[in-house]
Amino acid sequence: MTNNFKYSRHFSDNERENGQSLWRYIQSLSPETIARLSKPDSSEVFQFMEQNIVGLLGNLPSEHFSITVNTSREDLGRLLASAMMSGYFLRNVEQRMEFEQSLQSISKTTKL
């Protein structure tokens, strides 16, 4: 079964162009940059990213199945883009949580 990631017909040309800009940007990244961005600082973020990718690809236990994933280079790039965007989102959420915890800690300290 082939899953082609095509733009929906209801997207405007501007939305398509924005998607293409992101795609071109990702393609321009060096392998070293992609490797560095692929290693989150937090084990929680890593687990969320892993769950997201498993959700996209499906999860069959490898001990019972011989699993081969066939895809095009373009679709693999889109999967990478999706994983990166999820990672960026999760990292931003993690930073916000840390910031809010710092503010709460400061607030408690100033009340004492």
Q: What is the quaternary state of this protein?
A: single chain
In round numbers, the mean pLDDT is 74
Number of helices: 4
SS-based structural class?
A: mainly alpha
Q: What's the order of the H and E elements?
A: HHHH
| Number of β-strand runs | 0
Largest sheet: none
Low-confidence parts, pLDDT < 50 over ≥5 residues?
A: 1-12
Basic shape: flat
Question: How many angstroms separate the termini?
Answer: 62 Å
Rg from alpha-carbon coordinates? 19 Å
Question: Strand content of the residues, in percent?
Answer: under 5%
* Count of structural domains: 1
Helix content: 55-70%
What does this structure look like?
By secondary structure, the protein is mainly α. The chain has one domain. It has helices at residues 13-28, 31-37, 43-57, 73-111. The longest helix has 39 residues, at 73-111. It is flat.
Summarize the topology.
Blueprint (H helix, E strand, L loop, with lengths): L12 H16 L2 H7 L5 H15 L15 H39 L1
Helix pairs in contact: 3-4
